[in-house]
Structures are given as structure tokens and as C-alpha cells.
Amino acid sequence: HEAGHTLVSLLLDIDIDKVSIIPYSSGTGGITKRDIDKTGDIKLKFKDDFITDIKILLAGKIAEELIYGSHTQGCSNDIERATSIVYNMVTAHAYDDNHIMNENTLICNGVAKYVSPEVIDKCNELLSVYNEATYKLLEDNTDKLLKLRDMLLDNKTLVSPTLGMLE
Q1: pLDDT surpassing 50 at residue 27
Q2: What per-residue confidence (pLDDT) applies to 29?
Q3: What is the Cα–Cα distance from 82 to 68, expressed in whole angstroms?
Q4: pLDDT at residue 158 above 50?
Q5: 3-state SS of 12-62?
Q6: Cα–Cα–Cα angle for 36, 30, 120, rounded to 5 degrees
Q7: Active site residues
């Protein structure tokens, strides 16, 4: 799971400070990446940044499917978070054809609890596109994924992993 998150992050040129499979608090390990830009400021996100986040979240599930043929329930929070990001992209961040945020504004103000079928379809379409792209990325790099998995099983935590470590 964490190997998938880490590999996609590295392939998409995201710096990873640490990855661990050691459980902490109520979680089960994870990756630590910086949310600051090159100048040290808190990073404002562009559409591509959100898409990268979605791909990283989907990568754990996909990695488990590639390695084990199925995924565990450990992916459920990642799927929920990816869905939330894509929903906000479509309804709140004006990254879709709709530049007026009627639906999200109404929901946030408690005026409506209804999500239109069009919004659901658009979110599902985008998640499918990002899932396919992430699957291809991991499938093309299965050798690196397996090596990263083995390194994590042996060491439990990797500090500042790089693609060079997987050559």
C-alpha cells in the first residue's frame, strides 16, 4: 500500500521526507511529504496538484491489486479522500466547465443535500481517468514497486527515498 503511494509520488517528482509501514496513532503508517513550495511558503494548489494528490491516494489500492490481485480495506480512507478532492474540484474550485459554484454553495449553506447525477457522473469519470493513468504508471514500474515493497518490509521506514534507490 505505502509502496504504491511512495512510488507514484517519486514518479510524479514529489519529494518524500519519509515513508513508513510502522503503525502510528490509529493509522497504519504512511508517507510524509512537504506542503510547501520551493521558496518555503505554504503551497497553493493548482489543478495538477490536486490531480497528483488523487493519483497518490489511488496508488495504494492499485499497488495492492497489482501485487496481491485484490485490495484490502486499508484503502477505504484513501478512496474517500480522493473522492472528496475530485468532488471539490468539480463543484468548489472552478476546475470544471461550471465556474459558478451553485451546488457546493447550496450544500455548504445547508440549503440542499442533493448532489445532481451530472456531478456524480463527472466525479466518477474523472476518478476513472486518474485511476487508469495511475494503474498504467504502476504497471509500467512493477519492478520498482516490488523492490520498494521489499525495502519497506526489511527496513520498516525509509527516509528521503529516491527513484535512484530502486534502480
Answers
A1: no
A2: 45
A3: 22
A4: yes
A5: CCCCEEEEECCCCCCCCCEEEECCECCCCCECCCCHHHHHHHHHHHHHHHH
A6: 80
A7: 2
